[in-house]
Amino acid sequence: MIRTLTFFLSLFMSLLAGSLQAQSTYNVEYYGALRATIQNGDISANADLADFIDREHLYALGAFENLKGEILILDGKSYSTRAVSNDQVQFIDAYDEEKANLLILASVENWDTIELPHNISTMEELQETIESVAEEYGLDMDRPFPFLIEGLFGALNWHVIDWPEGDNVHTHQKHRTSGPNGVLEDQNVKILGFWSDSHHGIFTHHSTNLHMHFVTEDESLAGHLDGLENGQNLTLYLPESNQ
User: Minimal CB count within 10 Å: which of 27, 56, 175, 228?
Assistant: First the structure.
């Protein structure tokens, strides 16, 4: 009897360990840190994007070295942008001899789809919703995780950083206004974000647990997401769980 119980206990622990391992199908990596940029003015390269060109199902966001543009990669495809004037941006290939000052990434082969049941009015409400859904869904909230959002937003504040050479005084507000920026109205977008409540000053600012970039449905604009209003018919995607 004891031998039988020991066998079933061993089998249960093995299955449990396998299940937990299966659920950890993504790993968030990051290079550089916001505090090094803001506090120390360090805008040098911390990662070579060519090193990740063969990474399967890559999702990444960040800023190029010298803060000359925004990085966005969705399933290996670059939607990265750089300023060409005070109010215009162009799409560039992030892998083409480009380096990142800040880069956050994860490889995710499969996503689970969650239709959000209500409209989202603010960034704060979006964060609360993501945290609530992710915890109920079973993600490990002690680890950072990537997510995707698709849907229509009544307003979306954005920027593409274009840091002036020789300016060594960095603030969050100056980062928002140093290059093309504005408000999109009534646009369908796809958003890539990373959540963490323990990486403030590293890849999220101190006032939020989210870092997000976007691309419009027609792929006419992509950049850093600063604020949002009136999100409707939103779909949230979280890394597939094997619970």
Answer: 56
